[in-house]
Amino acid sequence: MTQPITIAGAGLAGALLATLLARRGLAVEVFERRPDPRRTGYEGGRSINLALAERGLHGLRLAGLEPVVMAQAVMMRGRMIHEGMDPPFLQRYGRDDSEVIWSVSRGGLNISLLDAAEAAGARIRFDERLDQVDWAGRRYRTISGTGQTSEHGFRALIGADGAGSALRAAMNAARPLGEHFEPLGHGYKELSIPAKAGGGFRIERNALHIWPRGGYMLIALPNVDGSFTVTLFLPNEGDPGFDQLTDAAAVRDFFARDFPDAVPLLADLEADFADNPTGMLGTLRLEHWHRGGEAVLIGDAAHALVPFHGQGMNCAFEDCVELDALLGQSDDLAWVFGEFEARRKPNAQAIADMALENYIEMRDAVADDRYQLMKKVERLLADRHPTRFVPRYAMVSFRRIPYAQAQARGLVQSRLLHDLTEVVTGVDRIDLALADQRIRSELSEI
Questions:
Q1: DSSP 3-state helix, strand, coil percentages of the chain (rounded to 5)?
Q2: What is the rounded CA–CA span in Å between residue 206 and residue 226?
């Protein structure tokens, strides 16, 4: 067929996939409902900083973008825990600085990916949103911000247009996809910590800062200019809840009570809280991701996650790598899209579940004495059995082990850690002989 592969959405996943497919020699066009951010500035709304880990880095390497992106990134060695007025303390993510994640700006990364996609030969049209799809005729119609419509033919449509995907809606209208959305009941509000007047960071730069408060939390991710992007995660209703924070005085009182050490850092607290929208959080699951060889969904359009494992972008980039590889194996798009769904869906389900679990860990457990003991024992066992006992966080963030496998192994390891620490208060009291025996019998080498 002479028609191009068409990608709906020029966000992070759409732009990376366009780059990979165009570098493969395929004809690729992309349309995006927003204007070109390189000309009009990046639109906010979802401007929370992103945690870039090994899965995402692998996709960027394949696109030749690792040096460009890493120049915009700030290393995060671990979680800096702010328990109250006590000095904060660091919980490392990995063994050393070879196991870290990176804070990157969504806007800056998106612009770099758009440049790469066009340089590879992809054609991108901005300010066009999907209006209608004629599946029988393999044509689709878009409408611009000024109301002008245009029609185009396609070989296949790929939905990279986010959790509110218009392509998913068009597919679902023609044949139900088994869509299920699970709201979290919590929302988020973006705030900011400015850089020092002369430049530099007001708090430790190489960490993801967390103020865990049991049921809710505040986090801060560093930016290259010395500022921090801060996010409050809070129930939508209750005490505390977003429905209670209705004026500047209530906001100030809440932060003074629950995050007193953060208040001096949040220079524009009341203004940021009033001006920035309250975002919604939830998990999207679909029974079906594709429509024969005509269309397929990737990233948030297929499996939106809550952001608490920092894997939304990384998982979406892994989708791009998988789909690109399959398109290199066969011209049978029905087989490619079916195989893509079969390979990726179990892994998307696994990371969705782990992201929900990580919210509880971040807001409730990180300051708990038992949790901290288990993390110490986890590190000890990982050092004793490096090819068998790999912490789940390391499997998810520092390796490319399938998410489903990381989840299954993580469950075995979690049971072991709970058993070993149930009646002891220190690492020196752990029954290492029992631990060694169970690890050898319950965990295969990886």
A1: 40, 20, 35
A2: 11
Which pTM does this prediction carry? 0.95
Contacts of 257 (CB under 8 A, 6+ apart): none
Q: How far apart are CA 205 and CA 96, in angstroms?
A: 16
Query: Domain residues of the chain, as ranges?
Result: 5-56+106-181+283-356, 368-442
Counting Cα atoms < 13 Å in the Cβ hemisphere of 194 gives 9
In angstroms, the CA 33 to CA 27 distance is 21
Ramachandran area for residue 380 (φ above 0: left; ψ -120 to 50: alpha; else beta): alpha
pLDDT in tens, 40-55: 876 554 456 899 999 9
Taking each helix axis from N to C terminus, what angle separates 54-62 and 312-327, rounded to the nearest 10 degrees? Answer: 40
Strands in 179-193's sheet, in edge-to-edge order, are 89-92, 78-81, 208-212, 217-222, 228-235, 179-193, 278-286
Q: How far apart are CA 104 and CA 98, in angstroms?
A: 18
* pLDDT value for 45: 43
Q: Looking up tokens 């209208």, which residue turns up?
A: 173
Which residues, 6 or more positions from 341, have their beta carbon under 8 angstroms from its beta carbon? 288, 289, 290, 296
Cβ-Cβ contacts under 8 Å for 311 (sequence gap 6 or more): 51, 53, 55, 305, 351, 354, 355, 396, 397, 403
Per-residue pLDDT at 5 exceeds 80: yes
User: Which CATH number fits the domain 5-56+106-181+283-356, given the four candidates 3.40.50.620, 3.50.50.60, 3.40.50.10580, 3.20.20.140?
Assistant: 3.50.50.60
pLDDT digits (tens, 9 = 90+) for 180-214: 999 999 999 999 999 999 889 999 999 999 999 98
> What is the pairing mode between strands 74-76 and 101-104?
antiparallel
- 68-123: pLDDT as tens digits: 999 999 999 999 999 877 899 999 999 999 999 999 999 999 999 999 999 999 99
Contacts of 44 (CB under 8 A, 6+ apart): 190, 276
| Structural contact between residues 311 and 305, judged by C-beta atoms closer than 8 angstroms | yes
| Most distant CA atoms of the chain, gap in Å | 72
Give the whole-angstrom CA distance, residue 245 versus residue 344: 40
